[in-house]
Amino acid sequence: MVKRRFVRTRSLQSGMRIDQAIVDGTGRTLIARGTFLDEYMIEALLNRGVGGVYTIEGEEEPEEEKEASVSPKVKKVIEKVKVPDRAKVKLSESVKKRVAEGVSYLYNNTESENFVDATNNIAADLMRAITDNDSIAVDVGALKISDEYTFKHSVDVATMSMIIAKQYGLPEKEVYEIGISGLLHDIGKTKIPNEVLNKAGKLTDEEFALMKKHSLFGYSILKEKSNISPAILLGVLQHHEKMDGRGYPIGVQEDKLSEYARIISTADIYDALVTERPYKKAFSQRDALEMIMSMTDELDISVMRSFMESVILYPVDSIVQLNNGEQARVVENKPNSVLRPKVVGLTTGTVYDLAEDVNCASILIE
Fold it and tell me: 355 lies in a domain?
């Protein structure tokens, strides 16, 4: 049974689930409704003078319990055909906290003499998370560093870009540098007034023109720093450029578009699509991936392929709804078919190989 109650902030404990959104004065969501609180978030609430919040007590029955009626025969089929997902990048809670604090520091202290060192420390944390278990994939539904958009977006883009770069075959040094470029790709937004950056309505032509300058602002901020390579700078400057020359701020075409920018652009577009903002609703992960796949004129095809081979949309053991009316458990993901995994029907035990079995061509995950 789910019960809602008001809890004073000083009485909150890690693991409690908040039943309201915490927003700042500009309307940015700092903690999203439904988030499970940790000590870092509780401390932030205390520091902001929040006296108390509404929480949810009790949880809906987890999927494993809901499947108690699955027959032994179906369970046997699932275990027989299940193939574990490729190694996915994972960040421990301590690393998440350190990374969130680090990115917050960067975006609030662009003039600091420790700026480059702080950036390198964050990139090193992400690099270790990727190399420690030889990660070659990312669960796009599990990336979550902070509920503050700028910080979450920066780390999500950096992490996805590093995984794409690894899948693309780039050496470790370049994977690391792409992480730095991804972390800093929106640093120029620190020069955009909050009333423009977080405006709920449509931007005026003048406001949009200003917003499109953020990559130039970021380049200007970073080019004055020591030990930031030209490749990193180009990634920041060009991350909104397109292969067909219809991007900004300069409108360069394919032959002038850097490799780092091509990778960061793909991750940036995806993460922006799936994130709710004051001025737009979030796209579903599936719809966002399909939109990425349709952008063949704007994005690098090879990078797009590496992106699609890197992401896991439906992790093994997750439950999906098929358009034939049956629920199914995901038992195998295939790198070249992110939208069509192999699944087993929970009622019938039927194995649906959505990617390779022609008899499953009309079966879709809803």
Answer: yes
CB count, 10 Å around CB of 28? 17
Q: Are residues 36 and 103 in the same domain?
A: no
- Asked if residue 231 and residue 115 are part of one domain, the reply reads yes
Of the candidates 231, 224, 288, 218, the one whose C-alpha atom is nearest the C-alpha of residue 259 is 231
List the beta bridge partners of residue 307. none
Residues 334 and 236 in one domain: no
CA torsion 177-138-104-99 (nearest 10°) is -80
Question: What is the extent of the structural domain holding 17?
Answer: 3-57
Rounded CA separation 152/20 (Å): 19
| CATH number of the domain enclosing 37 | 3.90.105.10
pTM, 2 dp: 0.78
d(CA 167, CA 153): 21
Burial class (CB in 10 A: 0-12, 13-18, 19+), 202: exposed
Q: What is the pLDDT of residues 315-341, one digit of tens each?
A: 999 999 999 999 999 999 998 899 999
SS3 state of residue 356 = coil
pLDDT tens column, 112-171: 999 999 999 999 999 999 998 788 888 776 665 444 556 678 888 999 999 999 999 999
**How many structural domains does the chain have?**
3
